[in-house]
Amino acid sequence: MRYRPIRPLLFLALFALSLCSPSAFAQQPEAIITIADTTVYAGGRDNYLDIRISNFADSIAGVRVWIRSERPDLVRFDFSGQAFERSGTLLENWEYVEAIDTLQNGVTWMLVAVADFYPDGQRTPGFAPQSGGTLIRVPLVTPPNPDTTDALVSQITHEQVVELSTPRGLLVGVVTDTIIDTLFWRCTEWDLDSCLTWEEVDTTISPYDTMVVDTSLDGYIDSTVVVGTNGSVTLIPTRLCDINLDAGRDLSDVICLVNYLFFAQNHAGDCLYTGYCDATGDGETDLADLIMLVNHLFLGGEFPDAP
């Protein structure tokens, strides 16, 4: 018997295929939603957590995201004022954007957003495929003096799979499985050759008179197609009334506090931390705190965390 030689090109193709792992044929992500790793000053104001998105194939016109703080003693989501910061984000001009504190405790947060929500209004498109854009900015609240010996880090995780919708209302990354369910029934009441009453039975226990094959479709979002990446918030410890964050308290901090209290200059120049100078412990930063700080620096007065 004669064997026909394998042609060189065919051999090379077969060899290349043999080197490919199954992962090479795996489904590539269509969207990645990233919770940014963030570092903030403990107790600071205007701290935000960025959530970013890369959508590679489809335009996005609907979003639902759940996130959770794993260390609520360190980091909570702030719903006391404006629920989130939209300026300069991909959702800036969307018609319906709502943040929901699902547990009413600032620990788990859900964003629901629709680009073109009002059918009679001006058409508002979603955003086209892009990479790394800021979806939304979530305001944070952190304690000024964390009472913990553990690391000052809270993991921020996706509570559920992210839901993304195209302008046509189609969910991105949906996979549909066919579920076949076989049911067995026995007639418990006959009228001649017609059954009046049926009951479902377990064939391992009772005989049956008929069998029904039920086919249904079950849809779910493939988490390898719509990928959620977790992040973290790290706190930097601070000293009370160290307003310019230079690791000390001196005249520059007094000047910052005066500008903040009397000239409404918040976070101006090096004055980064005016919100954390409640020296009297009454819950407010006011004239009494300024007086206490001046007495401590120039007259040797007591101060809450003075060395």
Topology:
Layout: H1 8-19, E1 31-35, E2 38-41, E3 47-55, E4 62-69, E5 76-77, E6 96-101, E7 108-114, E8 130-141, E9 153-158, E10 163-165, E11 174-191, E12 194-200, E13 210-221, E14 226-229, E15 231-236, H2 251-263, H3 287-299
Parallel strand pairs: 1-14, 2-15
Antiparallel strand pairs: 1-3, 3-8, 4-7, 4-9, 4-10, 5-8, 6-7, 9-15, 11-12, 11-13
Helix pairs in contact: 2-3
Can you describe what's shown?
Strands 2, 4, 6, 7, 9, 10 and 15 form a seven-stranded mixed β-sheet that branches. This protein has helices at 8-19, 251-263, 287-299; strands at residues 31-35, 38-41, 47-55, 62-69, 76-77, 96-101, 108-114, 130-141, 153-158, 163-165, 174-191, 194-200, 210-221, 226-229, 231-236. Strand 11 and strand 12 (194-200) form a beta hairpin. Helix 2 (251-263) packs antiparallel against helix 3. The chain has three domains: 31-172 and 223-236, Sandwich (Immunoglobulin-like), CATH 2.60.40.680; 178-220, no CATH class; 251-299, no CATH class. With 307 residues, it is mainly beta. The chain is built from three helices and 15 strands. The chain is elongated and about 105 Å long.
